[in-house]
Amino acid sequence: MQLTERQRRLLDLTFIDFLSNAEFMERPLVVERAEGLYYWDTEGKRYFDAIGGIFVAVLGHRHPRIMDAMRRQMEKVTFAPPLASVTDVLLDFVEKLGNVSPGDLRFVKPFSGGSEAVESALKFTRQYYKQTGKPNKFKFISRYYGYHGATFGGLSASGSGARKSKFEPQMNGFLKVFPPSYYRDRFSSWEEANRFAAQSIEDVIVHEDPGTVAGVLIEPVGNTGGIITPTDEYFQIIREACDRHDVTLIFDEVITGFAKTGNMFASQTFGVTPDIICAGKGISSGAIPLGAMIARRGMAQAFQGRPEENKQFAHGHTFAGNPLACAAGIAVIDEIVEQNLSSKAVRLGEYLREKLACLKKYGVVREIRGKGILLGVELVKDTKSMQPFPRLGNELKKTALEHGIILRIDPSWFAVAPPLIAEEGDLDEMCDLIDLSLRTALNRVGRQ
User: Fold this and answer.
1) How many CB atoms lie within 10 A of CB 342?
2) Residue 24 is part of a domain; what is its CATH number?
3) Is 70 in the same domain as 156?
4) Residues 144 and 92 occupy one common structural domain
5) Residues 186 and 285 in one domain
């Protein structure tokens, strides 16, 4: 699309996330409206939203149930003082979210997004150990290629060097291990690579001294590493190691939460219950900023006491638990449960995986991975050498927008997570656009 002079002038007064303004100007997108599975830009061009905004719009855009819930809440209260009160709708949200969370994860603290949820989980865990007689437990283990948000704590836990090196030194007490994908070509099977990667986490716990390690923070499906999808056993090994050494297991489910993987949370998909879940993105289907930390009730008990004991969680945000956001979150949960959208994610995911497999005809697809409708396609120069092909991914970023589809594209892979309102016919349209975009990109870059 063509930018107006006013748009260009105003773009110079702001920033685009993780993108230079000069690069954005080469293929600008100014969205005017959205509905269901689509965006429209200010020139009227339509774009298929194959990624739910950015893993957010699990029910599509402007879902009627969410819009109605927010309108009704607007007639009651849109803000309440967080230092002195709560609202009924916040308590309703706490109950709803706790009821669909795994195990004994019933303690819910709402926030304004995923980064806040992760930050609160880190602080919650450190304070928990200080108040349970283990004040030396302060270190966190996370993975290279992981991303846990834009705050300093979340960024310190992240393993994506390019995103955090500009802000170093990172906070003290954050350690990294490699995900199983790092070892996949060094072992005879994916299962063996996962066992080795999982065991390395316990090795770090032991060699750092378990008395100093507070938590392990991981994404069940790793986004920035290319939709890294470990085995069930990988998580079982980590869970057992955390239990042995009294280490809190934290799942960052900001991306994987809310039915995408075939269950409300990916922890249920993989069959392992963490001690804390960090949620965001799909929790409101993108209608309004919302996130949540969900913890075991047993951990929350450590924060109860008389005022003079000063045990309360020393953390808060002005807009945490906003009534409008809580109303939206309740509507999302109700719609997922009543329409059994977790099961639909499994059905659509199987269909989508088969459709994406058709891209293998181009000889540049190494692997299709993921769970449910959260899927990733790894791109290579050819399937013999399996060498990365970043030129292709960079060109795909251009051709996808040209052909009217929005994907999450890294130079070496792309991801999809279509809203759960989609049907098989919609996925046919989506995959046709992906096929066209990939074919156009290949024609432009060749095989060199």
Assistant:
1) 22
2) 3.90.1150.10
3) yes
4) yes
5) yes
The per-type count for the chain, helices as H runs and strands as E runs, is 16, 15
57-84 tens-digit pLDDT: 999 999 999 999 999 999 999 999 999 9
The pLDDT assigned to 106 comes to: 97
Look at residue 299 in the predicted model and tell me its pLDDT: 96
Tokens of 412: 């070496």
Spatial distance between the Cα atoms of 252 and 244, rounded to a whole number of angstroms: 21
Look at the pTM and tell me if it is higher than 0.85.
Answer: yes
Q: What is the model's pLDDT at position 170?
A: 87
| Beta-carbon count within 10 A of 31 CB | 12
Q: Show the tokens assigned to 124.
A: 């919650």
Residues in the chain with pLDDT < 70?
A: 448
DSSP class per residue in 298-328: HHHGGG---GGG--S-----TTTT-HHHHHH
8 A C-beta contact, residue 157 and residue 148: yes
Locus of tokens 């957010």? 56
b/e per residue 194-228 (b: at least 16 CB within 10 A): bbbbbebbbebbeeeebeebbbbbbbbbbbbbbbb
Q: What is the pLDDT of residues 15-39, one digit of tens each?
A: 999 889 999 999 999 999 999 999 9
